[in-house]
Amino acid sequence: MPLITKSHEDAETKMKLRTVELCDFKSVAHTELLDCEDFNVLVGKNNSGKSNILSGIVFFFTHLHADSLVSAIEEALKPSLFHQTDEGPANKSQVALTFVMSADEIQSLLNEIETEAPQIKNTLESMRSHNLLHLSLSVIRDPFVAFVDKVEVSPSGAPGGRMTLLSTGDEAGRELAKRHLTASSLHSAITAAERNATRVADRDEISRTYALNRAVEDISGAQRIALQSRLERTNPSRWRDIFEEVVGSWKDELKEHDLEELSHRLTTFTGEATTVPDYIWRLLDRVKSIRVLYLSEQRRPVGSNEAQQLLRLKVRRGGNTELQAIQATVKNLLSVQVDAFESATPRIPAPRTFSARPTNNALSAEMDVDNFLVQINGSGVREALRLILDVRFQEPDILLVEEPEVHLHPALEFNVLQYLKQQSQLRQIFITTHSTNFLDSAETSSVFLVAKPISTTARKIALDSLDEEIPRELGLRLSSVFMFDRLLFVEGPSDEAILRQLAFRMKIDFGRQSIGFVRMGGARNFAHYANASTMSILSRRQVKVWFVIDRDERTEEEISRLASMCGDWANLHILARRELENYLLDPAAIAKFIAKKTNGQSRPTADEVGTALSEVAEELKATTVAKMIARKYCTPLYFDMSEAKLDSPDDIASRTLSQLGRMSARLAELASSVESDVSKMEVEMSANWSERKLVSAPGTELLDGVAKRFGCRYRKDRDGAIIASFMEPISIDSNLQRLLREVVTG
């Protein structure tokens, strides 16, 4: 599926975000996102502050893109930036990000410091292992600005070993802020004045007033007063000369301003300084080059702008290939066809203003989804298109998405999840969500639980505690399973993850058909879910049902008994192989899994894995026989008091002794036949073991045994779906393919 648009090498050229720390920012008194990975999920109740954490990341990069060290705060943001307490708002907010630098980035930094300060060349060697870059952004009042107050580096695993490259301090920060505001005002005045100078000409008294207003348009403060005063005292025929004189004086003032040293000193790696070192500017420029895309909860509707971009691809050299890739991605994820065409209705140009310049006519275009205008399609399709097209056209290095599942039917969430996971190979992704599909996935290892007991806090959750913490925090209800048209009952979460991934590999669209999963918690709970009342409710709602159960050591008699419990409405599928993991024994897929699991430290070939599978299966022969024996001989024996007449203690004692005698006789009978049954099963197993061992041996233990040979372990709760994601459709068992297609077609 063509979801990835740039090479893995390109993805490694940017710094990776490791840690996010917020102090007195919006609803956050203090919290951290530690050890961020490629795919990060923030979960929590409504109003817990998930969006504020993402907005902190956005605020940081917005500041750097506005100016490298200092920037003014937009008026609309000022009331909400500082954390509120009972004593009032905080006086200072901080957003600190930690990045992981590559060896090349570290070397570039060392070279730049050495160029500026060659006398400390020998000292720089101690920095070569400092691969973490810490940048702290402070927001202060009076003036209301943000500035970078600290730039530090440290080695991984040594939180106390930071070296300071730049420390600004509040006083120097305020001085930098005031100078920045002055310089920004001069820059704006110069730009506006040079533009306005081309508008002026000789006019009569009435038009002179109009022209004077236009001459000082977009110029404010002291610069406006000074320019307007000069123009009012001068004949319009000399206004151009006045502009030249005034702009020239402003440029001179700006040059002097840039050369002026700070009165409050900065702390740098090379000592105290009154100017910001060049290596800091270059380092910040590299951070500025990180592209961030933020899709907030209130997203701009997809429409004419995206249609124009798609339409341009049709007429651009090489664009048709990119368009086809976009169409294939949308088709695979959403099961719809997207295209763009020139609009039959001409686009009405915007009204001309005094300062507007002539522009080329905008391309008039409209987007179709399955031959209908995108505007009349469902919200879920439009929201998913917004995500896919923004990522495709903007190619961010960091993608921040609030609730990607919004407006999506739960069955479609899995497709969007798979898309985001594949994109995380190329870019870091942070999402907020209320969807369990984004948490139950076998590969979601970086999950942060966000809560707000008093202020917003976030903590990374250990995978083993996900099942305990997430449902309680999200307030999940079992009734949500009734939102689907078809239900697939499976033994546990690993079975669901594997079947979903296999269907995804086969390009079977569970989401399009509104198919949901119910986890039974093991086949022992089959009777609970297959009871008549549950099946009656589902049948009245026309919800079709399939039960998928491991064969294990079940006899044909047991299978018939289970089938009789399903009734006419439900379909029972007992796997032909011992368990679902036995369908994952594809050597090529397992080889890729081992390489991923060991971070490339072990890269066996498919042939080597195939040999290991055969050998480990041989080692499990006795275990397989033992499980069959245990199935027969370890079946529980129960007291039967149903027909007993219990009128007195003597009756109870008599009945109890009778039942104990019956059970003892049964145990003696079983004990007498153990050796002969073991021998018989051993002979039967040996007769066709070489052909049946990969089908009959316990699949989970088989996969774990192979994994251990190559330096890792197989975890049933998460690794099955990973192996399934590496399987080619042709390697998926035909019976299993038939089942998955049957569920879709009904």
Distance between the termini: 26 Å
CATH architecture title of one domain: 3-Layer(aba) Sandwich
Q: In CATH's first tier, which class of one domain applies?
A: Alpha Beta
Unreliable runs:
1-12, 347-361, 465-483
Q: Give the mean pLDDT.
A: 81
Coarse morphology: elongated
Q: Helix amount, in percent?
A: 40-55%
3D architecture notes:
By secondary structure, the protein is of the alpha/beta class. Among the domains are: 16-169 and 267-290, Rossmann fold (3-Layer(aba) Sandwich); 178-259; 293-346 and 363-443, 3-Layer(aba) Sandwich (Rossmann fold), CATH 3.40.50.300; 479-581, Rossmann fold, CATH 3.40.50. Helix content is 47%, strand content 17%. The strands form five sheets. Strands 1, 2, 4, 7, 8, 9, 10, 11 and 12 form a nine-stranded antiparallel beta sheet that branches. A six-stranded mixed beta sheet has the order 13-17-18-3-19-20, with helices on both faces. Strand 23 (544-549), helix 20 (556-566) and strand 24 (570-574) form a beta-alpha-beta unit. The radius of gyration is 34 Å and the shape is elongated.
Task: Summarize this structure as a short list of keywords or feature phrases.
Rossmann fold; 9-stranded antiparallel sheet; single chain; 6-stranded mixed sheet; 28 helices; alpha/beta
